[in-house]
Amino acid sequence: MPHTILIASRRSGVSQVVIRAWEKRYGVLTPRRCEKGLRHYLDEDIERLTLLHQLTQFGYRIGQIAKCSNDELRALQAKSMPCREAIKLLTKPADFIAAARKTLDTYDADKLRCVLHHALDTLGHRLTLREVIGPLIALTGEEWRDGNLGEAQEHLHTAVIRDFLAASVPGADVPVNAPEMIICTPAGTAHELGALLVSATARDLGWRVTYLGAGLPAPEIAKAATARRVRVVALSVVYPLGCELVAGEITKLRQLLPESVSIIVGGRASHSYCSALAAIPGIHWPADLAAFDKLISGLV
Fold this sequence. Notes:
With about 300 residues, this protein is an alpha/beta fold. About 60% of the residues lie in helices and about 10% in strands. It has 3 domains: about 5-65, Multidrug-efflux Transporter Regulator, Chain: A, Domain 2 (Orthogonal Bundle), CATH 1.10.1660.10; about 90-165, Methionine synthase domain (Methyltransferase, Methionine Synthase (B12-binding Domains), Chain A, domain 1), CATH 1.10.1240; about 180-300, Cobalamin-binding domain (Rossmann fold, 3-Layer(aba) Sandwich), CATH 3.40.50.
């Protein structure tokens, strides 16, 4: 018996807007249509929507699983359920960090996604960013530099965290007149997870973010800032410490931007530039993500 999109939505847990978007963007279904052109869904269609919904809750991206058959989706669900049940016991940020770090020992990207998404469900978006993702990035970075993590483990961690941070903030509709900032890392740097973390935080606080990636020269950043008429340019500097090239890029950027545009420089290595560049006006140096939150909230 065919069902309307309203019934399909109620039974699967997927909103009508998302159902239409998944059909249009990913081709997850091709529902039949009645004489009036309305969508009709069969029971197997609703089962497919339900499976897709559950798996996205487990941390899978819809683009990864949209083309899977229902049998393949059931297999992924069966594989993920034990992982999900064990992760439900986690409640504190330290628990999530320890569980996430442990997944790297077995190269288990699926379980890492589950840990992060359960942290999101349990702690909320901002606390997850500040108390789980930030410390986890710092921990794995230190372990990789100390030789306690292999290159493949570091790449796996980076890929999963990048996808998690790049996802839009649930329910965050940025107003057309929202203040805008550009976020990137300057030339001479390559580590972008900190910049992605800052991007997710800024979006969560109502900013419109233009993310430019890693290793961008000052003139290119300034061109983009002028074109977008931004209020803030935020730079993440994780590595290297006290590099003359990076210090020169930050100085040059300040010279190229109008005084009305604030520059924020943060990240694990930012302290090594703060003292040398402290006399330059219009540059802010938040000590951590909480300080960054407070700073940009005051700039709105």
